[in-house]
Amino acid sequence: MTRMRCILTGFGALILGLLIYYFYPYPKIPAGITIDKLVVVKSKHRLFAWSHNQLIQTYTIAIGKTTVGDKQFEGDCKTPEGSYFIFAKNPNSGWHKNLGISYPNAADIAVAKSRGLHTGGDIKIHGLKNGRFNIGRFHRWKDWTNGCIALTNEEVEDLYAHTPIGTPINIEP
Q1: Quick check: 151 and 61 in contact, CB under 8 A?
Q2: Which domain range does residue 142 map to?
């Protein structure tokens, strides 16, 4: 009976931990704050949102399925590395909402052309695929995008509301 009680207690603790992870609210960006710089550190799976040289928010992210290396060509499933800017906002995306990243830049195009490759495009910061919102934070347990940067729907809503077009984004290895 003691062994069974230990197993049930452990299972209950696991379930409780998963529920807390899934439902625990994260701090939102305060009203009136405009994000003026984004930094992604792929190796840490983090997106940092800055305003006036002050770190405002840190998000845990999922990135491209091929996690190491700079995006070289369309279909390599890598998240690009370099300096870009937010060039578009789409409130009706197939991936909840998204912020368009200005990939490829001139340097990306030059590298791809020199290798006879096509850079691709459509790199975004986005939420979860429409209809899959119930995955929530669990999506971050595996890198799954084709090169985009993924947040939960709630997180992308918050970032979207505070990040204007033109905001610089630096994506680091």
Answers
A1: yes
A2: 2-172
User: How many angstroms separate the CA atoms of 66 and 99, rounded?
Assistant: 21
Beta-carbon contacts of residue 68 (< 8 Å; ≥ 6 apart): 78, 173
Count up the domains in the chain and report the number: 1
Cis peptide before 104 (omega within 30 of 0): yes
The per-residue pLDDT for range 106-154, each reduced to its tens digit, is 888 888 888 888 787 789 999 887 666 676 766 676 888 989 999 999 9
**Cβ contacts of 135 within 8 Å, gap of 6 or more:** 128
Could you tell me if 42 and 81 are in contact, meaning their C-beta atoms sit under 8 angstroms apart? yes
Amino acid identity at 113: K
Which residues have a Cβ under 8 Å from the Cβ of 131 and sit 6 or more positions away?
none
Token pair recorded at residue 166: 């033109």
Q: What DSSP line would sit under 34-53, residue for residue?
A: ---EEEEEGGGTEEEEEETT
CATH number of the domain within which 73 lies: 2.40.440.10
Residue 72 CA to residue 147 CA, distance in Å, equals 11
Average pLDDT for residues 11-31, to the nearest whole number? 77
